[in-house]
Amino acid sequence: MATSLVGYIAGLKEQIVGEAAAAVGMLETAVEALFQLDAERAAWVMKRDDEVDREEVRIEEECFRLLALFQPVARDFRTIATLLRVNADLERVGDHATSIAKQTLKLRELGAVRWPISLQELGQRVPIQCHQLLRALAEESVDAARSVMMRDRAIDSLDRRLFEESVDVMSESRQSKCAGLRVYRCGRELERVGDLMTSIAEDVIYLASGAIVRHDEKKRLKQQAIEQRM
Hints:
This protein has a single domain, classed as Methane Monooxygenase Hydroxylase, Chain G, domain 1, CATH 1.20.58. Helix content is 87%, strand content 0%. It has eight helices and no strands. Helix 4 runs antiparallel to helix 5.
């Protein structure tokens, strides 16, 4: 018996969730490698990136195949189109994890590093945001997706703090300046992952409800996050 479009989409969603788990696993390992200056773990992240890249291509091809074969409409079309966007963003998470791993190897060559507090907080907050996004994606949960979006402002604030703290840890030596710049680069990579989580959360809300929240709703959620901290 031929598999229905519903069955194909269910399989596609499982692939997406698996890809997301792999990308988040890469990020967590990259963060651990960074703070421990662990070359072996950093190398593992860089090697794993090729697998995520190949999975991204497989998922993209499957999406195009389903669009051409079934010519879906309404919710089915919305689901496949959304998964295409999510697929591309997840591959970029793997790229950012790989960039952190590369910076880790460079920092290891420089020796001892003074870690800014804001970078340490980013290293904790962004993976938590990623796991919350995984749950939102797997369950198509609007509430969980909105919670992910609300975390984005705190991550942006830490990114701004990191610039100042990175400058503060620099001395007059060239080695110190190189380390400070590379530390700041790692924070920027984490902040960009946070942005990707917000983008995917928007897609989850669209997938689950049909609502587009890229603009007005996004601003409202950020304002709500501010008010909750006051």
